[in-house]
Amino acid sequence: MLRLKRTTRGHKKEPKAASNQHDLELLRLIDEGTASQTGTAFFRELVKRLAQALDAQYAFISRFCDENTRVHVLAMWDGTEFQENFDYALPGSPCEQVLGGDIVAYNADVTKLFPAEKEDLERMHAESYLAIPLRNQQDLVLGHLAVIDTKTKNWRDRDFGILRIFAARATAEIERSLTEQELLNANAALARRVELEGLIASISTRFVSSDSADTHAEIDRTLGKIGQFIGSDRGLLYRFTEDKSVAKLTNEWARDSEGRARSRLREIRRDVVPEVVEHFLRKRTVNAARPEQLPPGFAVMNELPGAERVVSRIAVPVIYGADALGILCFHSHHIERVWPNEDLRLLGLLGEIVGSAMARDESEVALKDAKEAAESANRAKSEFLASMSHELRTPLNGVLGYAQLLKRDDSLGRLQLESIEAIERCGEHLLTLIGDVLDLAKIEAGRLDIEPTGFNLADFVREIADIARVRAAQSGLGFSYHTTPALPAAIVADERKLRQVLLNLLGNAVKFTSQGEVSLRIEVVAREYDRCRLRFAVEDTGTGIPDTELEHIFHPFHQVKQRERHVEGTGLGLAICRRLVALMGGTLTVRSQLGSGSTFAIELEVGEVAEVRTFKSGPQPRIVGYHGKRRRILIADDKVNNRRILERFLQSLDFVIIEADDGVEAVKLALTSQPDLILMDLVMPTKDGFEALKEIRASVALEQVPVVAVSASAFDATRARCHTSGFEAFLPKPVRLEELLEVIQPLLALRWVYETEGPDVARGNLVLSASSTLLPPDIARELYELAMLGDVQAFVQRLEQIRSRANSDVVVDELAGMARNFDMKGLRTALKPLTEAQ
Question: Which range of residues forms the domain containing residue 316?
Answer without folding.
Answer: 210-370
